[in-house]
Design a protein that fits this description.
Ubiquitin-like (UB roll); Porin; 659 residues
Length: 659
């Protein structure tokens, strides 16, 4: 590459700050204005002595180099003559300890030919080529970081075992910006100061290509987020002055006019939703100031419905002055889902489940699910209607019809139920702080248990109506694998029961959990659960509506629902109140694997208020495998103070942490 030379010996850069592996292609560098050079007078033919000094050239501005003096070190000078055959090698970089950032070193390691083949046999020609490539790479990375005069030479140091390739770097002086301008940004009016702050570069800052690209990106994001949908931000232009070791930076900005949101319009394509439903999902309404981030959010929400495969969301000229309409185009995804599950659980027996779902049988987003369960202790058939984004974002309307036969150690229940609920949900894409649900249930249940005093079996039929309500707050940092924060939730369900006569009672349950990172890779987690049933004695309440404890989501080490008072047959009978706690340390052991020692405790009581006496304790250790969608959990627990009939060891497998 040639560099033009000015009259004062000033070198003017003609190269950009384009760097291999560095996202700075948007930046452009142009030379400063170069003075004109007068034409040279004609040179008469003459006999030249090759050993004599070369005559000066008029108008060039600098003398020819003196060949009698030591030459300037070239960019790369390999010295590999002593290497014969193939040998394993290592390499080292000198001269950048005080200037190279961690990012520069990471990029070099990722792109280096020497690093890629480190420790592999190589001959002299291969080492020569690799050293030249890495020297050129290092020069490019240093220039991208503002060291425009960087030079790198190579040499090989003989070694008894392996040759050592050394890259000798001379970064030179780091260039700084002598001026930074945003041409046209004044057209943004009162948003000018905000845009300049977002760009973030000022005179005196180092000439760094990453900073330039980041500033340009931040400027584009901010100007479109602040009401300028059709703003144009040009490519950065950098002019380098090598004599002054500085540069100027200019970015052209054409803000256009500020706009307000208009209406959503559906473009050509497969119409899964209409514009009214998309407006229910959007977090903006007509008349709001335009904000480009709201379009990104809308696109994610439409994809999260599972009904579309691709989504295009773009601003277009609005039909009303000063507005911008939002054009939405979607492509339909397959609407059907078939799912299956098979497994075994201590206390729950073998269990298989299959379901078929049409996610948009009743547009918009009205899905129908047919679900069946077949197991040694559970049989179930249900039809579920679910409408997502019901008259608002993340609002779910659900209605179901269920027939089931459930066999537990404590009872057997044959139940037919109707249920409906309206809830605000949370999910891994849009984790909510506050969630809630309002619902209603009508149940007819034929249930078998025993008379506590004698152990004789009995069967009773209950007709139950309930209005369950929940309210939850999630202050944690992750839905499936929290490492800090806390969660609180409460459930209140007033119920009426008919079994001989009509009576009412209320079920109340409170849950709280907390998470704290104590060291890198170690999270200490704890939870408590309290519950009570007030308004009726235990024996009057249907066995399936009482409180139970024990199992993988309760006190680990014990069988499912096995903790608490028992009948003469040593089977659990449930109770009117419960107390539980859990403490565990989630330790990231190696790679994607972790270990979790835990200690749980809890009990069920016949009284209306929970107590902290006669607790059953369980301890054990768990294994976690961390995936992109959450940890896979395997816990092995044992009772610390078991009662008669409790297992020695219990195993639990599930997705997500225990709490």
């Amino acid at each position: 590459m040639s560099l033009p030379v000015g009259r004062r010996g000033q070198l003017l850069a003609t190269v950009g700050v384009f760097v291999v592996g560095c996202p700075c292609a948007a930046a452009q560098v142009r030379p400063a204005a170069e003075p004109s050079v007068p034409a040279s007078p004609a040179i008469e033919p003459q006999h030249l002595d090759p050993q004599s000094p070369m005559a000066p050239l008029p108008g060039l501005g600098v003398d020819w180099p003196d060949l009698s003096k030591a030459p300037v070190e070239p960019l790369v000078v390999p010295t590999l003559a002593t290497l014969t055959g193939e040998a394993r090698y290592s390499y080292r970089i000198d001269g950048i300890d005080g200037v190279a950032s961690a990012l520069l070193r990471d990029r070099f390691d990722q792109l280096s030919t020497l690093a890629t083949n480190d420790g592999q046999p190589a001959n002299a020609a291969q080492l020569d080529r690799r050293a030249r490539e890495d020297a050129s790479l290092l020069v490019s990375l240093l220039k991208a970081d503002g060291y425009y005069d960087a030079r790198v030479a190579t040499r090989v140091e003989p070694n008894a075992r392996h040759p050592l390739v050394v890259l000798d770097a001379d970064p030179g002086t780091r260039y700084t910006f002598s001026g930074v301008t945003l041409s046209g940004v004044a057209g943004a009016g009162d948003k000018e100061a905000l845009l300049r702050k977002a760009f973030g570069l000022h005179a005196g800052d180092p000439v760094n290509s990453d900073s330039v690209v980041a500033g340009q990106s931040a400027l584009v994001t901010t100007i479109t987020d602040k009401g300028f949908p059709f703003a144009v931000v040009g490519d950065p232009e950098i002019v380098v002055d090598r004599a002054a070791h500085s540069a100027t930076l200019d970015v052209a900005v054409v803000p256009g006019a500020q706009r307000r949101f208009g209406h959503i319009v559906m473009t050509s394509g497969q119409q899964v939703f209409d514009a009214v439903h998309v407006q229910d999902i959007a977090r903006f309404t007509p008349g709001n100031p335009y904000d480009a981030s709201a379009l990104v959010d809308l696109r994610r929400a439409l994809i999260q419905t599972g009904l579309v495969s691709t989504v295009k969301v773009a601003p277009v000229e609005g039909k009303e002055p000063g507005t911008v309409d939002i054009a939405v185009g979607v492509e339909r995804a397959p609407p059907h889902t078939i799912a299956g599950e098979i497994g075994y659980g201590t206390g729950e027996g073998a269990r298989s489940e299959v379901s078929w779902t049409h996610r948009n049988l009743f547009p918009p987003e009205g899905g129908l699910t047919l679900r069946g369960v077949l197991g040694t202790q559970e049989q179930l058939a249900s039809v579920i209607f679910r409408r997502n984004n019901f008259n608002g974002r993340d609002r779910i309307l659900t209605a179901s019809v269920t027939a089931s036969n459930l066999t537990r150690n404590a009872y057997q229940a044959r139940t037919f139920g109707l249920a409906a609920s309206l809830e605000r949900q949370t999910n891994i894409f849009f984790q909510k702080k506050w969630t809630w649900s309002l619902g209603g249930e009508l149940l007819a249940s034929d249930e078998r248990d025993v008379i506590v005093s004698t152990g004789a079996p009995r069967r009773r039929t209950y007709f139950i109506g309930a209005l369950p309500t929940t309210l939850s707050y999630d202050g944690s940092d992750d839905l499936l694998n929290p490492s800090r924060g806390f969660r609180l939730s409460g459930r209140f369900s007033p119920e009426l029961s008919l079994e001989g006569n009509v009576f009412g009672y209320s079920r109340v349950q409170l849950d709280a959990s907390t998470y704290r990172t104590v060291t890198k890779g170690t999270v200490l987690a704890g939870r408590i659960r309290l519950g009570t049933i007030v308004g009726a004695p235990r024996d009057a309440i249907a066995p399936s509506r009482r409180f139970y404890a024990g199992g993988g989501a309760s006190v680990r080490g014990y069988g499912y629902q096995d903790i608490g008072p028992r009948d003469p047959n040593n089977d659990p009978i449930g109770g009117r109140s419960l107390s539980e706690f859990s403490i565990e340390a989630r330790v990231k052991a190696f790679g994607n694997f972790g270990v979790v020692p835990f200690f749980d405790g809890g009990n069920i009581y016949t009284s209306g208020l929970p107590k902290l006496t006669d607790m059953r304790y369980g301890a054990g250790i768990g294994l976690r495998y961390y995936t992109n969608f959450g940890p896979i959990r395997i816990d092995v627990g044992t009772p610390v103070n078991p009662a008669k009939g409790d297992p020695r060891v219990a195993v639990y497998v599930s997705l997500g942490q225990a709490f």
